[in-house]
Structure to design on (332 residues):
């Protein structure tokens, strides 16, 4: 009997504020370029004041959310578990999920009191994205938000690595993984960002435990997690904790391991405008592919084309025209 969902994901719900800045903005405001940095509400308010009038777009985001949106854009069925507040950003988030046809644990009538998390996605002319994130109410994302029924009725559970920065988020990750394992649901995990495996390595290893079915990471994250250097050492180390994995290599493509064989996934060259959500989209398109009849190599090729399309425009979403263009490039 087929499952209702291809993927049930858990992660932080953040409204992305997409902003174009110059490099000097980081120097003037003491922002570390190229990383995701957690900040408090006052610090984020100061930065928002500095970029007033430069906000290009606001939309529901977060690492795992971007992956689920990507899955849905290709026609997959996803469920997203998160936490938002009863403010205007929370309402925007719920509406974005509903418009994309993504089921969730959220009910616009019963949102929590508080402030919805925000991520300032600052994009420089070199297309690199720098994120300053105030988690808001998603700081307290916990086991209470989990939908065990949605996990059980999914082919894959997808866990966002950013959750390890919160003690309650860490417990939710471990609980969701246990529910999945007890119900023969495959477990996939993304490390999300080098900072998560650098500063929360012990917690990430708690989540990984005896291993996962599918891991998404980039080469830097793999090296940091395993304490090794170089692709050969990294893939050997990751192979010990993941039955299957994807190591993305930016403009050099990706390496896919399907449990038996390695597949080098070629990049689709493009002019990079904004790298926001490239890895998230890769995961979403890849999960769509392996759940809908594609081989791992084919899914990797689809994901590579999709992530290339994302970086060639502002923001982490693809519209129907983008999807048609991606599919036309991929010989499946």
């Amino acid at each position: 009997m087929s499952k209702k969902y291809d993927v049930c994901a858990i992660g932080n719900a953040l409204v992305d504020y997409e902003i174009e800045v110059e490099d000097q903005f980081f120097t003037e405001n003491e922002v570390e370029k190229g990383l995701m940095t957690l900040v408090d509400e006052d610090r984020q308010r100061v930065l928002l004041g500095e970029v007033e009038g430069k906000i290009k777009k606001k939309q529901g985001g977060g690492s795992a959310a971007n992956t689920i949106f990507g899955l849905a854009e290709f026609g997959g069925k996803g469920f997203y578990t998160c936490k938002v507040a009863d403010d205007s950003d929370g309402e925007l988030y719920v509406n974005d999920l509903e418009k994309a046809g993504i089921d969730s644990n959220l009910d616009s009538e019963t949102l929590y009191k508080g402030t919805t998390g925000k991520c300032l996605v600052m994009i420089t002319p070199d297309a690199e994205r720098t994120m300053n994130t105030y988690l808001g109410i998603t700081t307290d994302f916990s086991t209470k938000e989990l939908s065990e029924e949605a996990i059980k009725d999914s082919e894959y559970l997808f866990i966002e690595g950013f959750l390890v920065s919160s003690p309650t988020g860490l417990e939710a990750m471990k609980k969701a993984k246990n529910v999945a394992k007890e119900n023969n649901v495959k477990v996939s995990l993304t490390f999300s960002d080098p900072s998560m495996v650098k500063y929360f390595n012990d917690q990430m290893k708690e989540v990984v435990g005896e291993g996962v079915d599918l891991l998404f990471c980039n080469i830097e994250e793999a090296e940091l997690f395993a304490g090794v250097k170089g692709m050969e050492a990294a893939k050997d180390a990751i192979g010990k904790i993941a039955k299957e994995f994807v190591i993305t290599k930016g403009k050099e493509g990706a390496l896919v391991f399907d449990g038996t064989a390695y597949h080098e996934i070629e990049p689709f060259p493009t002019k990079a405008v904004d790298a926001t959500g490239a890895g998230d989209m890769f995961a979403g398109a890849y999960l769509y592919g392996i759940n809908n009849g594609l081989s791992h190599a084919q899914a990797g090729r689809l994901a590579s084309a999709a992530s290339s399309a994302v970086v060639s425009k502002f923001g982490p979403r693809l519209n129907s025209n983008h999807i048609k263009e991606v599919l036309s490039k991929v010989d499946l």
User: Anything to note?
Assistant: The longest strand covers residues 14-20.
